[in-house]
Amino acid sequence: MRKKNPTPTMKDVALEAGVALGTVSKVINGLPVGEAYRLRVEDAVKKLDYHVNSYAQGLKASKTYTAALLIPNTSNPFFAKLVHYINTALLKRRYRMLLCTTDYDSRMEQEYITITKQNKVDGIIGLTYNPNLHLEETIPFVSIDRSIGPHIPCVASDNFAGGQMAAEKLADLGCKNVAFLRVGSSLDSEPNKRKAGFENGCLARDLILTEKILHDGEPISEFEDFFRKHLSDGKLKFDGLFCVTDYIAYEVIKMLGKMDIRVPEDVQVIGFDGVQAFGSGDYFCSTIVQPVSDIAEMCVELLLQESMSTKPPLVCLPVTYAYGGTTKE
Amino acid sequence: MRKKNPTPTMKDVALEAGVALGTVSKVINGLPVGEAYRLRVEDAVKKLDYHVNSYAQGLKASKTYTAALLIPNTSNPFFAKLVHYINTALLKRRYRMLLCTTDYDSRMEQEYITITKQNKVDGIIGLTYNPNLHLEETIPFVSIDRSIGPHIPCVASDNFAGGQMAAEKLADLGCKNVAFLRVGSSLDSEPNKRKAGFENGCLARDLILTEKILHDGEPISEFEDFFRKHLSDGKLKFDGLFCVTDYIAYEVIKMLGKMDIRVPEDVQVIGFDGVQAFGSGDYFCSTIVQPVSDIAEMCVELLLQESMSTKPPLVCLPVTYAYGGTTKE
DNA sequence: TTGTATGCGTTATCAT
DNA sequence: ATGATAACGCATACAA
Fold it and tell me: CA–CA separation, A68 vs A46, rounded Å?
């Protein structure tokens, strides 16, 4: 009883159980071992409240059981949700998540690649906007929403179908004259397909379509000017709006409020993402919901999958529509 | 050039530089070493793009350079912000964060304590609602918003001052008759002081005060009944509301909208937390802003501080008021 | 089947 | 000042 070991090791367990070190290891890893020995070891484990040191384990295996998640921030509710589900999916597989919030900053994204090296992560899941991110060939990478390279799988929502769905929903709800509102990084990423899908849907349902696309530098207030341009004696020309994200929808709805245009009476609004205020039950707006938890699962699954051969280049997951008070239903 | 080592080790560097292993270690750790040797080692490090394996380092030092963050979720924007800043503060000190989202579930909180053991974290930062959380005596713990035990530091906003500030602000803006709205876990935690501070402020400024406190089971819609009870010919008796969180404020404002009571014309509303929609510039409502980044820094500082003796039992950080459209200013 | 010895990447103690 | 060596906790190939 001289030195009370703060956290017991396999050696302590072996000593306690009166068996050899190797035997303990086998029991821990579920390898075949004599019944009597196993019981004694298990007792000792319980008695000492022993837990394997997964870092030492990793050292042996040349793995760290850690995956990095590269993401702009945790403030955007969509990202926050992604963080949550990816973390959970990793933990379930006894992996740790190294959270790297880049703040849309390319410099930071590169910096994190370094941290990633220092931490010897086993893989990286990245939602990144850096057009020319230089990443290690050797380390597994799964991209969200953006195709990054020939052998790097990309996971995204079915953005095209989502755009289409928005058009159909607006048509079903009686809209005739709709607008598509988007603020876009010029990078081509999967979410860009929302536009194509929406156009396609409008065509199919004979909706008149106007588009307003803000480019990198332009302030979001440009949308207000856009609306004013399409106003005739106080009434907006459009009866439906499809905003490329819930965030845009949120800003747009505020603008409409200031202009005394009622939502959904005068104009119906559909967003994209499925963001909930405070993570609680209700949506900010009627919206196309991304299957965040499925996206997370898929990313982790692909990342940890051993065989490179079976990794598909692009996985699109189905979206759903949800009512959030900004449409007539 | 036979086997191309995927990630170089100290040994490789030593070989490359033609020096002994120990020498490399010293250079890496900034210990004194001959100038010529140092240069050769540094060259080799650059050439091989060597990074220390912090897990092996940890194995020697019996540290993991990992701290766990126990928090209900990342969906609530206030928590999301906390996650972001704590992660950043840890990373700055070359620590990793193990994110443990408990979903307000006591069972999960305990489960994570186990994961925490398996992962041999060096410390825990916890924002937890488990009244009788059983935690290891041996591992450093810093609590957010709740005093948990005699030797466990607690970090929080100055909630009392925040409550006071809300009362003063409402008084300054012309309110005479105000209400305090709270939904409360019965647990006594620092945020409860918001009530005391507000009462204090109302007294000082001669405001008539009504309180409505929802208990654990009651649905938030109870507030709507409360309002209807204090309605006389369509006008609300109150001209100011202090909601204990921005979330409550958000829900309350929606209710008021349905009742055709205008904010801030008919009634002004102040929340608490300083939550921003989508993490962008503007606040959901006029609010008392918690200094999230300071809280995060303080937690990490206290956690990693060696000397137990100098750890204060409770640290309260100053709050500020921010306009968010739901007050007359 | 069980036990022993070696090595994973580092650091620290010791001779040199 | 520099270099060899042991030890950290664990897994495993090999010997008993």
Answer: 33
Chain B residues with CB-CB distance to A123 below 8 A? none
Asked if the model's pLDDT at residue B70 lies above 90, the reply is yes
What is the least distance, in Å, from the CA of A74 to any CA of chain B? 6
Task: Give me the CA A22–C1' D15 separation in Å, rounded.
Answer: 13
Of B56, B77, B97, the CB nearest to A59: B56
**CA gap B297, A325 in Å, rounded:** 40
Interface check A7 vs B, CB under 8 A: yes
Does A65 reach chain B within 8 Å, measured CB to CB? no
Query: In 10 A of CB B229, how many CB atoms?
Result: 9
Task: Determine the Cα–Cα distance for residues B158 and B319; give it in Å rounded to an integer.
Answer: 6
Nucleotide nearest to B20 (CA to C1'): D3
Buried b (16+ CB within 10 A) or exposed e, A131-159: eebebeeebbbbbbbbebeeebbbbbbbb
Distance, CA of B224 to CA of B212 (rounded, Å): 11
User: CA–C1' span, B60 to D7, in Å?
Assistant: 8
Instruction: Name the residue type at position A203.
Output: L
Nearest to A97 by CA among A69, A120, A131: A69
B20 CA, D7 C1': Å apart: 18
* Cβ-contact A67, A95 below 8 angstroms: yes
Burial class (CB in 10 A: 0-12, 13-18, 19+), A239: buried
| Adjacent-strand bridge partners of B97 | B67
How buried is residue A309: exposed, middle or buried, by Cβ count under 10 Å (0-12/13-18/19+)?
exposed
- B81/A80 Cβ within 8 A: no
pTM of this prediction? Answer: 0.93
Instruction: Kindly state whether A96 is in contact with chain B, defined as any CB-CB distance less than 8 angstroms.
Output: yes
Gap between the Cα atoms of B139 and B126, Å rounded: 12
Closest CA to A67 of A88, A51, A49: A88
Q: Return the SS3 of A181.
A: strand
CA–C1' distance A295–D10 (Å)?
35
Protein residue closest via CA to C1' of D11 = A60
Q: Which of residues 47-106 of B touch strand C (CB under 7 A)?
A: 51-53, 56-57, 59-61
Computed over every residue of chain B, the mean pLDDT equals: 91
| Two tokens, residue B134 | 């059983």
Per-residue pLDDT of chain A (329 residues; tens, 9 = 90+): 333 447 899 999 999 999 999 999 999 998 888 889 999 999 999 999 999 999 999 999 999 999 999 999 999 999 999 999 999 999 999 999 999 998 888 888 778 887 888 889 999 999 988 766 777 778 899 999 999 888 899 999 999 999 999 999 999 999 999 999 999 776 788 999 999 999 999 999 999 999 999 998 899 999 999 999 999 888 999 999 999 999 999 999 999 988 999 999 999 999 999 999 888 778 999 999 999 999 999 999 999 987 777 888 899 999 999 999 999 97
Please state, in angstroms and as integers, the Cα–Cα distance from residue B46 to each residue in A98, A279, B17, B33, B279, following that order. 25, 46, 11, 18, 39
**% of chain B residues with pLDDT over 70:** 97
Give Cα A227 distance to the centre of its chain: 32
CA torsion, ordered A226, A105, A70, A59, to nearest 10 deg: 180
Contact residues, chain A, for B114 at CB < 8 Å: 51
Arithmetic mean of pLDDT, B298-321: 90
Nearest Cβ partner for A84 among B54, B64, B73 = B73
* Count of Cβ atoms closer than 10 Å to residue B37 Cβ: 17
